[in-house]
Amino acid sequence: MPFGATNQNQNFGVIHMTSSLALIFLQSGADAGFFNVIVEQFNQGGNWMWPVLVALILGLAIFLERVITLNLADINTTKFTKEVQEALDNGGIEAAQEICANTRGPVASVFQAGLMRADEGVDAAEKAITTYGSIEMSFLERGLVWLALFIAVAPLLGFLGTVVGMIQAFDAIAAAADISPSIVAEGIKVALLTTAGGLMAGIILQVGYNYCVSKIDRIISDMEESSIALIDSIILMKEGKKIVQSSDE
Q1: What's the CA gap between 136 and 147, in Å, rounded?
Q2: HEC string of 139-198?
Q3: Does residue 114 contact residue 128 with C-beta atoms inside 8 Å?
Q4: Is the Cα torsion angle 70, 75, 76, 79 positive or negative in sign?
Q5: DSSP state letter for 243
Q6: Cβ(216)–Cβ(139) under 8 Å?
Q7: Do the beta carbons of residue 108 and residue 132 sit within 8 Å?
Q8: What is the pLDDT along the chain (249 residues), one digit of tens a residue?
Q9: FRET pair for 73, CA 20 to 30 Å: which of 43, 90, 103, 222?
Q10: pTM for this entry
């Protein structure tokens, strides 16, 4: 079973948990100095602050789910590759497959797919590794498109709140037939707060997105390098040569 498929049922639970924690955090913030200011500014931002908050919460939920999944997918690839090579030397393909089956992560899944086709030849094993590697890459990247969406949407919602706030300011001017600062202050404050909220949400989510992308790139790089080592090991095994050389050789 693909590693990514084992995490599908956890996604909703992680998103629900993150949303609940964020709401509790917002409510409890009223009792703690600095967070009290944040909650107060949030309330003064008007109704347009809520869509920005929803975008931030959903984006953070996806980020948390990706972090958990990627950390579970991350293993010591060098150590694992050596264990598989030693198993091929001592017990053959079946022993190596057993190690892969007992190891989590996409690298182990790709190795297992290649070993299952090793009896059919090196070309078949290499093709299986390539195909299965693409599948595992899609599992690793799942959800990032939605995270990117919320990165774009949050600032746009903030700018929309800015427009609404300016409209409120001009409506107040029209109603009072005056341009005194006190009349337009409320509308301008709403405009500035929603802009700040949208930009802050976008910045936070962008940092999370870049972290996920860098983590995925490293896992894929490890997967590709270890796959080359596996193909070389299969070739050596079929030639009857020793894969892992002892230190005294």
Answers
A1: 19
A2: HHCCCHHHHHHHHHHHHHHHHHHHHHHHHHHHHHHHHHCCCCHHHHHHHHHHHHHHHHHH
A3: yes
A4: negative
A5: S
A6: no
A7: no
A8: 444 444 444 444 444 444 554 555 455 444 456 667 777 777 777 788 899 999 999 999 999 999 999 998 888 998 999 999 888 888 888 888 999 999 888 999 999 999 998 888 888 989 999 999 999 998 898 889 999 999 999 999 989 888 888 888 778 777 877 676 776 777 788 888 888 899 999 999 999 999 999 999 999 999 999 999 999 888 888 887 787 655 444
A9: 90
A10: 0.76
Three-state DSSP at 67 gives helix
Residue identified by tokens 């070309």 is: 123
- Written as six digits, the tokens of 9 are 């049922």
To the nearest 10°, the Cα dihedral for 23, 27, 31, 32?
30
**The token pair that represents 109 in the structure block:** 């899944």
Instruction: State both tokens at 71.
Output: 């950390």
* In contact, 193 and 49? CB cutoff 8 Å: yes
